[in-house]
Design the sequence.
């Protein structure tokens, strides 16, 4: 039973880590697109999309990611769709990501000073033109650091998908821990793997944040 | 074939749901109290550069914030026995919650402490207060007050995150859901109800935290 | 014997020699008006007397408490020296009453009831007794500064340091604060005031001290110095103010 070498463990974990990265990227990109749609709904003039987007965000920020995954998994089978853990994981994490990014970005748009709206309105720009040429470019600059920061939450969130059977880094680790009876070493390596993925993102986000503040001061 | 929803079969297990809710709240409460305690210690060490604790806390914060809660939980529950530290599922869950919230609140509270205007500290010093008196009476309360909304959010996040404690068989709310759906074969209805319960819990916990903040820190009422 | 004695005081910020040998004796009950251009070292001098800044050379003595270069135990000295800041620095999370009570309770270990009595007495003195339960952000700047004065007075200091305490105030609020200071002076409180209110310096000050480039350039009776500055620098300064 114990003829699994350390190299085997590391190789398997690296395989799992690739799936973690793939899922993170998928969720981040698709969640970003959906988040952008949410953002526009959230700052629309019409209150109906505004309320809907707000409700969506509150639900996804107010319930456990694990429950969201279960709901997708079992809800789709109710509809007669047998979806794979990969699809359920990607879909669940995308929805989760979109809710957070939508909210983060709304905060960035709202932190653009009111005077910018007023000044651009006084130049007879339409609402869309104001967004396109004045507000969004400034909001974008503010948004980069927290967006990179949130990507850490996405990577960490992928670990939860192991519970619905998606074989990524954590699931691989659980299986290896059972097979090798070396949970300390295996979960230690798993943790290191996540750290290696997340720490650079955290550090980069902090760096960006400092730089924005630095460039504002001058 | 039309599916008929059967929520009654979930509510039959209201005892299990209630027990799970209580455990989830207890886990959150213990995690919050001790996590904030660690957060205050960590924040002071970091903000006032108390060597070597500032370094230790910096490493701790980075390690925890850059790894998933689930992996921390597995490491504690399955991994630590190799070091002779055998914890049952509740001890492991509580430890993981405390460690997790401790790391986040260290950073949150530190930002509050560092935002203290210098003049506040100087005014207190000029009144002959000691360093620790200044911290306890002048620096900490407004710092906590300022970052309390972030702390409330973080506590809600940690409460929701505790749902993965079901994976080490800690019988909290998600564990109850897993148990119920294995009995009534109504997975969707069961998880729907429990998701809704978490949603309400999140609102309730946030409210309770906001109230607690006003009671404990802002002594606005006499 | 002088209440405050400053001898050969030198202070650097890095390579910036900010105080270049200050000698100053202040008698009990004296009101010192400290004037000079921005950057001449007035704030630094006050902050050094209260131990908010260390110094490299010289000696400070307040009512028998000695302060030496790089001293770290300043509590005894600070109990004798109160300070009022330009920015008030009230504690925002505490009511007005609690602001005044705090140090008497935690530093002097006075009980709740007595501390409250002291606080009420001091607030009465600055005319703000009715604000006992208000919070700093509910007060005007002038009121906040008067609370700050009450807070310092509650510690029963022997000398009060005031660093441009009206500079952050709207013009119409300046007088209510100066009126309080005037009362304190009349009651015999020893005061060192950095101020740009020349009229006040002339009327209330017992001694005018003009600082220039980290030195006491000229000092003496306010009436005489204003009428007859002995150095071109002081003449210039007075001219630039009016
Ligand atoms: N904390 C500090 N660090 C470095 N330099 C300082 C600091 N405080 C004051 N200085 C410098 O000391 C000099 C005197 O400043 P200050 O005492 O504030 O003058 P004044 O109160 O007369 O305007 C100035 O050159 C100022 O730049
Ligand atoms: Mg000054």
Sequence:
């Amino acid at each position: 039973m114990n003829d699994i070498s350390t190299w085997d463990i590391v190789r398997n974990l690296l395989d799992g880590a690739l799936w973690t990265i793939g899922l993170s990227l998928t969720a981040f990109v698709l969640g970003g697109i959906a988040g952008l749609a949410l953002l526009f709904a959230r700052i629309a003039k019409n209150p109906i999309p505004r309320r809907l987007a707000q409700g969506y965000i509150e639900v996804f920020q107010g319930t456990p990611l694990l429950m969201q995954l279960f709901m997708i998994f079992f809800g789709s089978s109710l509809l007669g769709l047998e979806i794979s853990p990969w699809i359920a994981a990607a879909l669940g994490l995308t929805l989760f990501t979109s809710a957070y990014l939508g909210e983060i970005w709304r905060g960035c748009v709202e932190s653009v000073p009111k005077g910018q709206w007023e000044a651009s309105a006084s130049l007879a720009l339409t609402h869309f033109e104001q967004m396109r040429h004045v507000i969004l470019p400034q909001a974008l600059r503010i948004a980069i650091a927290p967006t990179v920061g949130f990507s850490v939450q996405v990577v960490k969130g992928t670990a939860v998908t192991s519970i619905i059977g998606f074989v990524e880094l954590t699931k691989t680790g659980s299986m290896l821990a059972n097979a090798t009876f070396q949970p300390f070493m295996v979960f230690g390596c798993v943790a290191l793997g996540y750290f290696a993925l997340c720490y650079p993102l955290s550090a980069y986000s902090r760096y960006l944040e400092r730089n924005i503040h630095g460039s504002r001061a001058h | 074939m039309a599916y008929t929803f059967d929520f009654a079969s979930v509510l039959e297990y209201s005892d299990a749901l209630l027990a799970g809710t209580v455990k989830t709240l207890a886990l959150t409460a213990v995690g919050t109290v001790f996590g904030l305690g660690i957060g205050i210690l960590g924040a002071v060490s970091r903000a006032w550069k108390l060597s070597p604790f500032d370094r230790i806390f910096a490493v701790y914060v980075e390690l925890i914030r850059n790894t998933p809660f689930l992996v921390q939980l597995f490491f504690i529950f399955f991994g630590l026995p190799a070091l002779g530290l055998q914890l049952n599922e509740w001890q492991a869950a509580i430890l993981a919650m405390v460690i997790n919230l401790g790391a986040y609140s260290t950073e949150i509270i530190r930002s509050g402490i560092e935002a203290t205007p210098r003049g506040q500290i100087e005014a207190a010093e000029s009144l002959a207060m000691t360093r620790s008196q200044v911290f306890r009476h002048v620096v900490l309360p407004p710092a906590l007050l300022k970052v309390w909304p972030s702390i409330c959010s973080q506590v809600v996040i940690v409460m929701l995150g505790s749902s993965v404690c079901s994976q080490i068989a800690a019988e909290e709310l998600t564990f109850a859901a897993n148990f119920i759906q294995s009995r009534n074969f109504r997975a969707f209805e069961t998880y729907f109800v429990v998701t809704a319960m978490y949603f309400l819990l999140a609102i309730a916990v946030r409210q309770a935290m906001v109230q607690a903040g006003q009671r404990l820190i802002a002594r606005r009422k006499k | 014997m002088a209440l405050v004695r400053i001898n050969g005081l030198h202070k650097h910020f890095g390579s910036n020699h900010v105080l270049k040998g200050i000698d100053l004796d202040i008698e009990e009950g004296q009101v010192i008006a400290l004037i000079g251009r921005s950057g001449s070292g007035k704030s630094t001098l006050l902050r050094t007397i209260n131990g908010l800044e260390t110094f490299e050379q010289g000696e400070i003595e307040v009512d028998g408490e000695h302060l030496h270069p790089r001293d770290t135990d300043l509590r005894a000295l600070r109990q004798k020296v109160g300070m009022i800041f330009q920015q008030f620095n009230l504690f925002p999370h505490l009511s007005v009453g609690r602001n005044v009570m705090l140090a008497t309770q935690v530093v002097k270990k006075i009980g709740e009831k007595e501390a409250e009595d002291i606080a009420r007495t001091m607030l009465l003195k600055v005319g703000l007794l009715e604000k006992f339960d208000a919070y700093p952000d509910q007060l005007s700047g002038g009121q906040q500064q008067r609370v700050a004065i009450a807070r310092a007075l509650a510690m029963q200091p022997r000398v009060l340091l005031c660093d441009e305490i009206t500079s952050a105030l709207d013009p119409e609020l300046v007088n209510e604060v100066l009126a309080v200071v005037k009362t304190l002076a009349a009651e015999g409180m020893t005061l060192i005031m950095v101020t740009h209110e020349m009229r006040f310096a002339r009327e209330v000050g017992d001694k005018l001290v003009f600082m220039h480039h980290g030195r006491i350039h000229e000092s003496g009776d306010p009436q005489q110095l204003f009428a007859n500055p002995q150095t071109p620098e002081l003449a210039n300064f007075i001219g630039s103010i009016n």
